[in-house]
Structure formats: C-alpha cells, structure tokens
C-alpha cells in the first residue's frame, strides 16, 4: 500500500508530505483543529482548540511493508516562517483516533495564510522489539519540509 493511500482513507486529513526512514514511512498531514483528551496521572483533561489554533498537525509513522502504525516514539515538531523564525516548538501527543488511526498530533496556531517550514524530530520508538525491528530506528531522525496553509 502506498503511503498517501494510508492517509487518504481518512477524509478529514490532508496529506502534506512524506519520507521514509529505515522502512518507516513518516507522513505529515493536517486536519482541522481538534478537541482531545489527555491523561495526566489518573485524571483526564480536555484540550479544546483556541481561537488562535489554525490546524491540527499530524505525523503518521507506519511500517513501509505492512502499513502497521508505529507507537511509542517521541515526535517533536518545529514550525518556522519563511525567514526561519521559530513560531511553534512542541512535542506532539501520541493520539488514538477511530477515523484517523494512531498518530502523533498537536493543534498549531499560525499567524496567517502562506508557506511555513516544518521539521519533525522523530526519536527511536521506546518499546521492546522483536528481531526484525532490533537494528533500525536507533538514532533520532529529522524530517524537514515546507507546507502551504490555505485556511
Ligand atoms: Cu490528533
């Protein structure tokens, strides 16, 4: 299955770009700003979009061969304007969604329509691994691209 088809199954997701890292497809996508809950210890908090939030920025990590989503990674996102000024710099939440599947995501405020630079810092998945996964994703990987926000 090609990567864009994996993202394409969810109508509310707009794929932006993708790359492959040692057999892991890393896709960047957007969706409308999303309400989500977060567990902190034994309490569940709600995060609702603010007026400033422009997009729900999402990273989908999947095995290139099986399309199986890959959890337990740390994914950090940095958004810059065209001049390289950092506008947003946060860790993405690991997220569960019935319609979009397991992904990493966060609501991002943008100052306006236009082109932005984005970089994803993907850390090694922090999980015990069966042999086929023991020799890959051992160092962090950075994926840099640009995207156009058209509102
Ligand atoms: Cu999400």
- Number of strand segments: 11
What characterizes the major β-sheet?
Answer: 5 strands, antiparallel
Number of domains: 1
The CATH superfamily is Periplasmic metal-binding protein Tp34-type
- Number of helical segments? 1
**Can you give the helix content as a percent range?**
under 10%
Small molecules in complex: copper (II) ion
**Order of helices and strands, N to C?**
HEEEEEEEEEEE
The main sheet orders its strands as: 1-2-5-9-8
Distance between the termini: 30 Å
Q: What's the architecture, going by CATH? A: Sandwich
Indicate the mean pLDDT: 91
Q: What does it look like?
A:
This protein is mainly beta and 151 residues long. It has a single domain, classed as Immunoglobulin-like (Sandwich). It is 4% helix and 51% strand. It contains one helix and eleven strands; from the N terminus they run αβββββββββββ. The protein has a five-stranded antiparallel sheet. Strands 7-6-10-11 form a four-stranded antiparallel sheet, with no helix packed on it. A two-stranded antiparallel sheet has the order 3-4. A hairpin with a 2-residue loop joins β3 and β4. The N terminus is likely disordered. It binds copper (II) ion. The site of copper (II) ion (CU) has 7 residues, from β5 and β9.
How do the strands and helices of this protein lay out in sequence?
Elements: H1 3-8, E1 14-21, E2 24-31, E3 36-40, E4 43-47, E5 53-63, E6 75-80, E7 86-91, E8 93-95, E9 103-109, E10 114-122, E11 141-149
Antiparallel strand pairs: 1-2, 2-5, 3-4, 5-9, 6-7, 6-10, 8-9, 10-11
The protein binds copper (II) ion (CU).
């Amino acid at each position: 299955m090609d990567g864009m088809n994996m993202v394409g199954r969810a109508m509310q997701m707009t794929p932006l770009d993708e790359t492959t890292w040692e057999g892991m497809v890393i896709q960047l996508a957007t969706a409308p700003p999303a309400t989500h809950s977060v567990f902190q210890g034994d309490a569940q908090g709600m995060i609702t979009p603010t007026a400033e939030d422009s997009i729900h920025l999402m990273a989908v990590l999947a095995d290139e061969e099986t399309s199986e989503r890959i959890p337990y990674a740390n994914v950090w996102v940095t958004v810059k304007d065209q001049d390289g000024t950092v506008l947003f710099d946060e860790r993405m939440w690991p997220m569960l969604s019935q319609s979009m599947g397991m992904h990493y995501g966060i609501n991002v405020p943008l100052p306006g329509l236009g082109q932005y630079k984005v970089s994803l810092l993907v850390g090694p998945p922090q999980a015990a691994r069966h042999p086929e996964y023991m020799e890959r994703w051992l160092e962090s990987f950075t994926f840099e691209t640009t995207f156009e926000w058209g509102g």
